[in-house]
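Objective 1.3, modelling of assemblies. Example input:
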Amino acid sequence: MASVQVSEAEKVYIMHGVRDDLRVDGRGCEDYRHMVIETDVVSNTDGSAKVSLGHSDILVGVKAEIGKPRALVPDEGYLEFFVDCSANATPEFEGRGGEELGIDLSNTLYKVFNNKHSIDLRSLCICPGEHCWVLYVDVLLLQCDGNLFDAISIAIKAALFNTRIPKVHISEDAEGGKEIELSDDPYDCVRLNVENVPCIVTLCKVGQRHVVDATLQEKACSVASLLLAVTHKGMVTCVRKMGGGSLDPESISEMTETGKRVGKALHAPLMDLLKKEEGLGKNRQKVGFLR
Amino acid sequence: MPTDTKRLRGPEESQSPMLFLPPDAQILKASSRDGSRGHADVRPIFARCGLVSQAKGSAYLEAGNTKIICSVYGPRETERKDETDMKSGRLLCDFRLAPFSCLKRGAWIQGNEERDLSVALIESLQPGVCLHRYPRSQIEINVVVLENDGSILAHAVTCASIALADAGIEMYDVVLGCTLRQDGDTCLVDPTFAEESGNWLGGYGENQGRVTVALLPNFNQVSGLHADGEMREDTLTEAVRTCMDGCHKLYPVVQHALLRAVKRKAPPSVK
Amino acid sequence: MSPMKLCVPGERLCSTEDCIPGTGTYLRHGYIFASLAGYVLRKNEGEELPVISVVRETEAQLLPDVGAIVTCKVTSINPRFAKVHILYVGSTPLKDRFRGTIRKEDVRATEKDKVETYKSFRPGDIVLAKVISLGDVQSNYLLTTAENELGVVVAHSEAGVQMVPISWCEMQCPRTHAKEFRKVARVQPEYLQA
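Predicted structure (tokens):
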């Protein structure tokens, strides 16, 4: 992953700051950086969102296509994740350089959504065993400035909120053959219920404490971090320890507790914001470069 | 390609009928686990070192029907040159599920799941290995799952750490792994494949999940933690504790396997 | 003799007050722990405390370290440096090949500016050298032969016969009596035994 070199003196400075609950950029240990969310930014998608968290920029596009349901779950649609680490973000990603990170990120996303409640997959079913909606969630990293996981999960939630799936009708002819009919009205669509979509909270252990939304510098000072995917009810859908260090059991339970608290608090304002933005319709002010 | 329309051809894709059996609801009930195993019991494991004579170190591990073989090569000169490699060594991992290891035949090339397991394995082992003693070099860990009967990541961690110790790679501690399957309020330690997937697919109940913990037993430090599903926070914390207990149960076997391998070689001459 | 104590990585051996940590061990919070699976050895070396170490029948994998004397084989030369494969560290053979570089200015200690690599080494020569750096991202291990005891120990003449050293900078072929230039090592007896 994109990383920075931090000298010993800088490390000591950052760690002492974290110990006193004051980080280099003035935040407390459980504060996120400034976040900018915009939805409906790419016209060719069924749903899209762009999230900037500090200097991390993430663009997510959701495309719905009709596919065949998986044999084991004939009455459900499914989600496909793909994370592209573009060389725009850092030259290290050029060629196949970003492939490893991309696979790592998308595998984690599959795990985050590997449960029955995050998205009601049954609502994506068109005709059991034959046709279903497949949501292709494509994530593009435009800029990397630490804490990619959290930013991506928020961007995905926003993009799924923004997603409109066209309504289809199934008509049966006399011989029992089925036909899918697409509604003529382009505004006749279905929305997804994204209330249960989890947000990822990454906690970096710096010294004896842990910080939320670590910058690259802070990340360089930590040997281990814990990734938690938390729903608005406080349920944990995915946990992963990352980095080359180990954690003692007490700090794991402390970190899970913090993660749950922070993650839970993240959802309500996010949903409010998304609804408010949608209410503004076409008149909303564009902040990003995408129009 | 010209097709013979007169001949009746089968469907392009086929699936094993085994996959469509109703999920065995009995599995998660009471103490019917393979006879007499309790919910918190791990399967008895069998571990041996030094099967692959060509490798620097190797290990074979069996837990119930889960069978894993692991070999370690190196340290050797690193292929990829990064800034970080210069001060300390690097672990490389190639995790494979043999095509015949699962219910459904897998492919020989490494799939997404296997890559994910490789990353998870490295993350779990790294805290236990004294990598700073191996500057500029890489240590290769190859894991092949011969038979998948659940908890493969956890057992692969244990197996790989035995192989590393057998290879004479300096380690802070051995690394032990344990998996737990949470289903509502019951939890099953070291689940079999059926228990692992069991009701998972059918049920929409709350508090479903799977937790894998890697532990450094002598320091009581958690070196790896992977969980998915949907769990309450308190359940998760409890699950981590249960897994740690499960890991500690494996320690005597691992210790025995390593000591046996050391004893088999002649003791060093004391000068 | 009582059976020797065995250990596995992570086992606590003793406190630092009782022993000095040797190979195969590490320190943590004032205690000595084993980092290898093997036999526990305590050795008194005239110091106040015995040295505790963990040994295995097969030598723990050694890696070339700064200051180590290594035996290597020259693979290629150019005007600026010679490329070598490191074969031995001390007297321990390496399982895998490690590549090293002897730069022109590290060939000998005096008249560094007049060194010509072609007159110091030839591909195929067996050279004793010392590791001066592990190198950085671009380079391999950096080695030096700038000591009397370091340099070419085995070399073959153009006729394919093993040559005999006649001075610190020349070797002679016993068959054709042709002289060739080399940076010859004055081999120390202790290395010969190894």
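The longest strand of chain A covers residues 131-143.
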